[in-house]
Amino acid sequence: MARIDLSAIRHSYMPRPSVEADYALKQVDHSFLDGGAYALLGPSGCGKTTLLNIISGLLHPSEGRLLFDGRDVTDLTTQERNIAQVFQFPVVYDTMTVYENLAFPLRNRGVPRDEIDRQVRETLALTDLAAVAQRRARGLTADLKQKIALGRGLVRSDVNAILFDEPLTVIDPHMKWQLRSELRKLHRRFGFTMVYVTHDQTEALTFADTVVVMYEGEIVQIGTPDELFERPAHTFVGYFIGSPGMNLLPVEVEGVQARFGAHAIALPGAVRDVKGPAELGVRPEYVRLGAAGLPAQVRRVEDLGRRKVVWLLVEGQELAAVLGEDEGLPTEPRVTFAPEGINLYVASRRRALEAAA
Amino acid sequence: MSSGIGETQGQAVPARSGRRRPQHQRHSLTWLVPTLYILFLMLPIYWLLNMSFKPTNEILGSFSLYPQNFTLDNYRRIFTDPVWYWGYINSLTYVVMNMLLSVCVALPAAYAFSRYRFLGDKHLFFWLLTNRMAPPAIFALPFIQLYSSVGLFDTHIAVALAHCLFNIPLAVWILEGFMSGVPKEVDETAYIDGYSFPRFFTKIFMPLIASGIGVTAFFCFMFSWVELLLAKSLTSVGARPIASVMTRTSSISGYELGMLAAAGVLTIIPGALVIYFVRNYIARGFALGRV
Amino acid sequence: MTKTWNNKAWFFVLPVLALVAFNALIPLMTVVNYSVQESFGGNVFFFEGTKWYSQVLNSERFRAALGRQLIFTFTILAIEVPLGVLIALCMPRRGVWVSVCLVLMALPLLIPWNVVGAIWNIFALPDLGLLGRVLNGIGFDYNFTRQAGDAWFTLIVMDVWHWTSLVVLLAYAGLISIPDAYYQAAKIDGASRWAVFRHIQLPKMKRVLTIAILLRFMDSFMIYTEPFVLTGGGPGNSTTVLSIDLVKIALGQFDLGQAAAMSIIYFLIVLVFSWVFYTVMMRNEGEGQS
């Protein structure tokens, strides 16, 4: 297992990129620590698969270096980098049995026969595939095939990292949960470096210790699931994570106050050198309904069982609030924001609020 | 295998740019294989073109890689002789008739094979295919008798019908492949939405397999256009195909070699035009809808 | 896809059935009829039972034609299938050159068969053709109208020229349907070029290759026009394959009974071979669904 360093990686699919928009990956500097479980989260086309393929060596980056444990591997082939990758659609060798599928990467590397057998048997037991070992791979279900693909990575005990490219896309919902927890278990037991690409926030947040959120070819935030939720560094993270996403209100900052239409909202702290237009970000979970605050109209209520989402109209601006299932809705609701849930964004980036002195 | 790979497929293609690492460059000579093959394909056609622009005395008198005395006489003679150009019209007439006929009757049959199981379906399908296997030479003589007895001898429709023998099985086979690629839920949704079968079939289903219909028509055109034995046997004067007119000239003596070459060039042109129009569907079409 | 059982589907098949039956069954009955009778001109026929059949099966001439036919068919299959696969593997997958390659390669498939014969006749003429001139120029004594070996060589090269593209197009269609992830996984697993071909490309091409072999087998077994125009079955009988012999007997000698019996035997041979291919192909498809 290895630490993976990305140093000023840029990539474009065009032969001669000129403007910034030509780059699928704008600029990525990041380190995946040895033994960490990372998720690369972002919408389709944000460059996360590109980044994954650069790590695995399927793509050569236009610019920048890639280091495994400090060693420059940018110009090494996929095989020399010794990584494993599980793809979106299960890739199995149809004509081979499950056993032969797992043995394939070892045979290609000229591992001695009895060593292959030992490792394949071990991996078969690990992935619960022992029962189907002698079956042909083509007739198996999607989740078993995906396990075979994973097994082909695990069978090489010396892989530097295991990469996952949306591996649960074609798996039935109830199997998704099971596969994911098995993966967690394997990770805890063997501690390999894992990078998991997904556009599903639940998958990312439940799988990874550290989530890397990507947007339009850039990393916009790296953090624990908690940090992403409480302190989104970018308005995109606020919008993309959470359901519904973060409320964003256009405001004018004036000292420790934000002016929203005719109303003034008190900020929990001051911001230095911010004046004028900005955006106030408040998660629906921190929107409070009561007798005081901004007057609001209720547009509609979605009952989600354990909680309710109330869609409000405040100063012509749509706003979501989350209420517990037992909380009542005031007849003439007014809106306030819990101070710990207020974030301020200028040009989409979060600005820290300093405690009022 | 599903094909909606989306993001992954579009991005992960190693671009053929100059920045690839050395390991990929060993493939860089692969272009030579198709190039040499195409060269091999084009040489005889070039020679045909070359001959068609030469006057007879040059063909017989000297050997040259290109026409020394370039002439269009051979083509001029063809276009001024009604026997020749009527040959073209005859050929195209029965080819188009056969194409329409084959596709129209094969559509419902292919639908039945792709959607339903019925008594004897597998045997019927195989029996249809056996007709694709029947050597036309076997049928030449009985065809003459059959079509003479129903009074269709030497008509376009006779050739069009006779070519159905091998084109319909092929059309059913190809269309069945494309139709099986359309999920059955499409049919069921349409019925729930209150579509009658004919309306569903023409308004919803046929547009979905439009490329399949195109490919089928292409194959029918191809096999009807290139076939000569039956077309020649079933016609004498009235509906004589171009290919048959050509055999009149195909003596190896060399006297008419220039004109034979010109006629050959002219028979290649309709095929070339058809290929050009379907060029973007060829690869997918040959996969016959499901692989 | 699960299919519903519905015998009304027969109505959809009826038009096809009527047309094909008209074209296939009536002539086939005619042929069967001839094959068991003796005719002495006019309309006088005598029932002869299996006389023609035993005569055909015992005739040296039929066996020789069948032998030539089998040699021809298996030679061209042995050349065209591997060559076609090789060319398909080397073709570009994307870009403008794909269309150019496909259009040029498909061209021979759309040339009328007698024109194919004529093209090769002109191309291979020992004195006037490019091929003949070049071969004679570099020291071969080449003349396909006089020497059996040369006639065979020309016939086979012509068929390779004419039909390899069909195999290429089918194999190529199979290849481009393979998702990129398979190649990427193979790279990660450290697979060699051969292993990629053996375990990824070949299995995915299996179905289209079966179709290619089936089509090429059927069509090469009934080849008539091209050799007829090119060599006329000669020199001597050296390139007289089954169809040419059949037409010679039926139209040349007007030996209807014998020609009909030969037709039936000929047809049955094609049928049996094709049935074997067909069942193999269907079994492969069944495996895929289980």
**Backbone structural class of chain C:** mainly alpha
Unreliable parts of chain B: 1-26, 250-254
Assigned CATH superfamily of the largest domain in chain B: MetI-like
For the largest beta-sheet of chain C, the strand count, sense and barrel status come to: 2 strands, antiparallel
Cα-based radius of gyration of chain C, to the nearest Å: 23 Å
Features of the shown structure:
A: 357 residues; Rossmann fold; 2 domains; 6-stranded antiparallel sheet; C: 290 residues; mainly alpha; MetI-like fold; two-stranded antiparallel ribbon; 3 strands; 3% strand; MetI-like (chain C); Sugar ABC transporter permease (chain C); MetI-like_sf (chain C); transmembrane helix (chain C)
Concise structural overview:
Chain A is built from 9 helices and 24 strands. With 357 residues, chain A is α+β, with helices and mostly antiparallel strands. In chain A, the strands form 6 sheets. A 6-stranded mixed beta sheet of chain A has the order 6-7-8-3-9-10, sandwiched between helices. In chain A, strands 13-12-11-15-22-23 form a 6-stranded antiparallel beta sheet. In chain A, strands 2-1-4-5 form a 4-stranded antiparallel beta sheet, covered by helices on one side.
Topology diagram in text:
The complex is a heterotrimer of chains A (357), B (291) and C (290).
Chain A lengths: L3 E9 L10 E10 L4 E5 L6 H9 L6 E6 L2 E2 L5 H4 L2 E3 L11 H11 L4 H14 L15 H13 L7 E4 L7 H18 L3 E5 L2 H7 L2 E6 L2 E6 L1 H6 L4 H6 L6 E8 L2 E4 L2 E4 L2 E2 L5 E7 L4 E4 L3 E2 L1 E7 L3 E8 L2 E8 L9 E4 L4 E5 L2 E3 L2 E2 L2
Parallel strand pairs in A: 3-8, 3-9, 6-7, 7-8
Antiparallel strand pairs in A: 1-2, 1-4, 4-5, 9-10, 11-12, 11-15, 12-13, 14-24, 15-22, 16-21, 17-21, 18-19, 19-20, 22-23
Helix pairs in contact in A: 3-4, 3-5
Chain B lengths: L6 H5 L20 H21 L3 H6 L11 H8 L1 H34 E2 L3 H13 L2 H14 L6 H25 L3 H9 L4 H12 L1 H17 L2 H5 L8 H8 L7 H21 L4 H5 L5
Chain C lengths: L3 E2 L4 H26 L1 E3 L5 E3 L3 H8 L1 H31 L5 H11 L6 H12 L5 H8 L10 H29 L3 H9 L4 H29 L3 H6 L11 H11 L3 H34 L1
Antiparallel strand pairs in C: 2-3
Helix pairs in contact in C: 1-12, 2-12, 3-7, 3-9, 7-9, 9-12, 11-12
